[in-house]
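Ops channel
N.P.: pipeline sanity check, posting one input/output pair.
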């Protein structure tokens, strides 16, 4: 898998975009791929869209996202031909005190979030049953959005491991997220959230410190959260048909 990063934002410099991309590429290769037992995706910054290979999936940095509610930060989706593409908006983060490449809620951490979720569940269609009546969406960054951690001085998103989706995992020995802050499957940090289906209804659960302004990013018609909620409705409809 090749994930091409393009910078179409006036608020983020090409130098910062390239620095983010290099850090995220290292994160995928050294952190995510080994913990998920997968071959790493290549994550490459391109200054010229015409240089992007036809087979690549793409994520563009922009100022704001058109045709989405104000404040939406990012999403990735799939077109009719199976092509994956995503967008990350810089302005909502920067307007709310975030920085381009450092600290929690940075532009780089949102880009990392979208890259990692594109890498692990590219088609946005995987769910995990907790064996207690709930099904959780396969979103590897949502439960642990903050705190972030640094790769080469760049803030990137924490992420959960396969054990997080396994109700039979050993709580005493399993690693549930990169930073080791979670201690049980299907749990969330104060700066995280989850989408799940239970008893025929779809739900969103937010941690105590998840910023109110950031919840707006989950409301866009193309956002993964909205796709997950629609999937939850379909899952229940199919189960009761």
């Amino acid at each position: 898998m090749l994930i091409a990063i393009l910078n179409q934002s006036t608020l983020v410099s090409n130098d910062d975009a390239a620095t983010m991309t290099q850090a995220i590429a290292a994160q995928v290769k050294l952190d995510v791929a080994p913990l998920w037992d997968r071959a790493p995706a290549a994550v490459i910054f391109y200054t010229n869209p015409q240089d992007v290979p036809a087979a690549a999936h793409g994520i563009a940095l922009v100022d704001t996202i058109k045709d989405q509610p104000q404040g939406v930060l990012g999403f990735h989706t799939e077109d009719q031909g199976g092509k994956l593409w995503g967008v990350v908006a810089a302005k909502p983060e920067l307007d709310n005190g975030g920085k381009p490449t450092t600290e929690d809620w940075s532009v780089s951490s949102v880009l990392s979030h979208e890259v990692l979720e594109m890498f692990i569940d590219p088609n946005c269609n995987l769910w995990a049953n907790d064996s207690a009546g709930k099904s959780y969406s396969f979103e590897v960054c949502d439960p642990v959005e903050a705190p972030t951690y640094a790769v080469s001085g760049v803030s990137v998103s924490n992420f959960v491991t396969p054990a997080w989706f396994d109700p039979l995992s050993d709580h005493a020995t399993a690693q549930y997220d990169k930073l080791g802050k979670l201690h049980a499957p299907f749990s969330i940090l104060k700066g995280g959230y989850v989408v799940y289906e239970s008893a025929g209804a779809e739900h969103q659960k937010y941690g105590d410190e998840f910023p109110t302004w950031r919840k707006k990013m989950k409301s866009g018609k193309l956002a993964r959260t909205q796709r997950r909620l629609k999937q939850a409705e379909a899952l229940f409809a199919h189960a009761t048909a």
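N.P.: looks fine end to end. Residues 2-240 form one domain.
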